[in-house]
Amino acid sequence: MVQAIGDAAESARHPIVVGISGFCGAGKSVLARQLEPLLPGAIRMRGDDFLDPERSHRRSSDWDGVDRERLRDTVLSRFRSEQRGMFRRFDWSMRALAEPEPVPAGRILLVDLIGLFHPEVLDALDLSIWCDVDLETAAARGMERDRRLGRDHERLWREVWMPNDRAFYRAFQPRDAATLVLNSR
């Protein structure tokens, strides 16, 4: 995987964006954090910075709580075209968008996010990695992580996030849209 990303970055005429997606709890963030130090010029962009806390806690068939348009227009497109610009992360402690900050510059941008492989964003990704694990296993991992962190999200997992993952998968077949599939069992 590191070799494939490195080769893509080497042959591209512009900085590349690597999207990492999968079900909630599939290991997207873990993978991005592991890849970043292994890829010269790589920067990780946390997908959680592009969630809307209200919408991401509601049922939807397309992970409506993911602000893909803001991510694509203010970060991904600008990063790939080496344009200066500003973007705003969602500040979870303030429950609002944070102050503007510069779009990072580098050779590779790693973005890990649920619902990322959507038609609104796919053409802004140079490589796409699907963390392949069944929904039940991914959800069990995510719920365990939340318990360790002292978060009580069990109801959200069962009533919102798992159904959203299921609906998104049926509607958009994100595994099939991936350039690379990583077995994350």
Summed up:
This protein is an alpha/beta fold. It contains six helices and nine strands; from the N terminus they run αβαβαββββββαααβ. It has one domain (2-173): P-loop containing nucleotide triphosphate hydrolases (Rossmann fold).
Strand and helix layout:
Blueprint (H helix, E strand, L loop, with lengths): L1 H10 L4 E6 L6 H8 L6 E5 L21 H13 L5 E2 L2 E2 L4 E2 L3 E2 L5 E5 L14 E6 L2 H14 L5 H19 L1 H4 L2 E4 L2
Parallel strand pairs: 1-7, 1-8, 2-7, 8-9
Antiparallel strand pairs: 3-6, 4-5
Oligomeric state as shown: single chain
What strand order characterises the main sheet?
Answer: 2-7-1-8-9
| Spatial gap, N to C terminus | 16 Å
User: Which regions have little confidence, pLDDT < 50, spanning 5+ residues?
Assistant: none
SSE order, one letter for each helix or strand: HEHEHEEEEEEHHHE
CATH architecture: 3-Layer(aba) Sandwich
Percentage of residues in DSSP E strands: 15-25%
Q: What's the number of helices? A: 6
